[in-house]
Amino acid sequence: MRRGHATGFTLVELLVALSVMALMSVLSWRGLDGMWRVQSQTRERSDELMALQTGLAQWSADLDALANLPVAPGASTEAPRTLDWNGQVLRMTRYSAAPAPTGWRVVAWSRREQVGAGHWLRWQSGVLRTQGEWQTAWAQAGRWAQSPGDEERRNEVLITPLSRWQIYYYRDNSWSHPLSSATAPTGTAGGNPATAAPGSALPDAVRLVLTLPPGTPVVGELTRDWLRPTLAGNKS
User: What is the pTM of this model?
Assistant: First the structure.
């Protein structure tokens, strides 16, 4: 009987097969790498958008909780202020919690250059119960906006990249810059809310205009209006 001849792949065929497999592996890796990059960018954009939404919600919550502080008779310290804008930082005195506040907090919002880019930031103090504690926290909030030290930075939260921001007050039936009038409502630009009639210490509304830079989930101008909850009637 004749013996059969063994069959198999030649060296050239093996090299071609290995080359095809290597090419398919490279293409598959690039596809997986591209999918991973897209997922990573989507997750990053989602986190940035959530941070912006949380910041805007906190902005409204701070304004909703603004406190009208009493001044103790014969007090030698600076009278507490409810709301103050100096062109760089917006400082607020708000109740520490709702619906049953146990004290106050000083909250500050500002824009600062960090790592070559502008960012929107929020700062808050601990719970305050005396006028002296308020005065210390109020001054600390001002230092935080100008030249923060390690102590001030511990209480700050970075919200979102920000190119610029503007604030307007609605008073006397029109929108205006908070520092545009010397007769601004008491408490809005350094006045004492305790000496004003109830409800007159705050503007009727506050408008926040954020300019968000390219590369963020929302690009361009974003406007947020806050209306004083105790205001009678509607303002548009």
Answer: 0.72
